[in-house]
Design goal:
The chain is mainly beta and 85 residues long. The protein is built from 1 helix and 6 strands, in the order E-E-E-E-H-E-E. The termini are far apart.
């Protein structure tokens, strides 16, 4: 299989990470954004694609550079309720 045509190679720290969606983005020359998910990176994928055009970039990273999975936080605003009979 032929190697995909890569527009550029970009370091992970140059991408923007969106924690709420676990998506990394980087500006594409077409005006849209290259996109790759955190899970794709963890799975060894390194090609981010632009959904609006045919351009692709290679993301240069080490697995240790990826954010760690955080355990779900307990709701600290919940207060105990006293029950009386």
């Amino acid at each position: 299989m032929a190697e995909p045509s890569i527009y550029d190679e970009i370091e992970l720290e140059d991408l923007t990470y969106h924690a709420s969606t676990t998506l990394y983005t980087y500006p594409c020359p077409c005006g849209d954004q290259f996109e790759i998910t955190l899970q794709d990176l963890r799975d060894g994928e390194d090609i981010a694609v632009c959904p609006s055009c045919s351009l692709m970039i290679r993301v240069i990273f080490e697995t240790g550079d990826l954010p760690t999975e955080e355990p779900p936080k307990e709701d600290s605003t919940a207060l105990p309720v006293e029950v009386t009979a």
